[in-house]
Amino acid sequence: MTSYGGNLVIAEHSVIVARGMGVRRGGRWLLRPVTFGVPEGVVGLAGPPGAGKSTLLATFATLRRPNAGALHILGHDITNAAGQRAARAAIGYLPARFARADHMTAGEFVEYAAYYKRTSVSAARSVARRLDLAEAARTELALLPPDVRLRAGLAAACVHEPDVVLLDDPFGELCAAAEPWPTGPTGPAGPGGHTLTAAMAELVPVLRSLAPTVIVTADATETLTGWCDRLLTLARGRLTEQPTHSAAARRGRSAADRRGADVPDPRAAVPQAILASDRRPAPPRRRAARRTLSDVSFPRLTLPRLVRRPPARSATGV
Question: What is the dihedral of CA 50, 51, 57, 62, to 10 degrees?
């Protein structure tokens, strides 16, 4: 998504295209009808609690339909069943809370996601190894630290190697764990702030390598500023693009920017975006080359010594 003359427009390489799309809940507009596009890269979506970020992300995940307008994901129209199935096969979605899975171990949770996505168990174990979950595989999710539990959620969301990953407030638990620090200050100089900063420094490269397009939500813009390629805010039903101050964006590291930098454009003086009325949804295309999880190095995790219980089994036998 780009902003031109104060209006949101559809970029040349838009993975998600919304035309006059509006989202309502409880009789009010969470997103007033608007036309926009989401390009490849890491896109942050910030807004106060209750603004509708989770509902909008669930709409992108095809879990609900927009109340107005049309929505295309990877060229598929999600208003019809065939397009919805095709889009879902290429989407990885992690909700803000997955408390119903707390009784499962990290390994069981990732393997169940592989079963749900019709992927092999070997693929589940492979992505778990890439995310350094070997030591946590037999530990229940409820007993894991927030950053390790988030890695298990990321592994489950990306077990089928999606093209679009939707993460609803992935740093929420980390922020909550850092704020009420009982033995010292809670600001950036306090122990809680240092713990949050260190955890995010390890997780941000992981998030950037999950898929060609990653959409991340957060309550505060400060959480997303500096590392997202695009930054949007949602408030009072209106979607607005904000400056990211991202070094990656300035150096043209997003997938769309890299593609534009490979070949000089003689129309460089013209903004590389077009109005929605002049652009059709992008057709399905081959996945762009990207940095994979295997390229990201992780520090070795040291889990606290716990009294291990036998792994709980779900009703489905996973």
Answer: 90
